[in-house]
Amino acid sequence: MGTVSAIGARTGVCGLALAGVNVVVAEDSDAVRRAWRALPGTTGLVILTAEAAETLGAEATAPDPSRPLTVVTPR
C-alpha cells in the first residue's frame, strides 16, 4: 500500500496530519501544481481540497492507473 498525501490550504488539510497523512500546504494555484508534480512515486492516495481540485482540473481527479487514487473533500 502506498502513502496518503493531502494537498490544499492549511485550514483544509492540517488536521489530516493527526491521522498520519503526508500534508502538503498549498495556499495558491502555483503551489498546488508544484505539490502535485512533486508527489512521491509511493503515493497511493491523494486527498485534495475542493479548491486544489479546481486548480488541477478534472484530469487529475479522473481515474487513471498511472496516477494515485484521488479524492476531493467537500467545501
Chain-wise SSE layout:
Blueprint lengths: L2 E6 L1 H4 L8 E4 L3 H9 L5 E6 L1 H7 L1 H4 L7 E4 L3
Parallel strand pairs: 1-2, 1-3, 3-4
Give a verbal description of the structure.
With 75 residues, this protein is of the alpha/beta class. The protein has four helices and four strands; from the N terminus they run βαβαβααβ. The protein has a four-stranded parallel β-sheet. Helix 1 (10-13) links the parallel strand 1 and strand 2 (22-25). The chain is globular and about 30 Å long. 25% of the residues are buried.
Kindly list the characteristics that best describe this protein.
single chain, 75 residues, alpha/beta, four-stranded parallel β-sheet, 4 helices, 32% helix
Concise overview:
The protein has 75 residues and is α/β, with parallel strands linked by helices. It has four helices and four strands, in the order βαβαβααβ.
Rg is: 11 Å
Order of helices and strands: EHEHEHHE
Task: Identify the overall geometry.
Answer: globular
Helix-strand makeup class:
alpha/beta
Number of strands: 4
Helical amount: 25-40%
Strand content: 25-35%
N-to-C CA distance: 28 Å
Report the major sheet: 4 strands, parallel
Average pLDDT taken over every residue: 95
| Order of strands in the sheet with most strands | 2-1-3-4
The count of helical stretches stands at 4
Q: What low-confidence regions span 5 or more consecutive residues with pLDDT below 50?
A: none
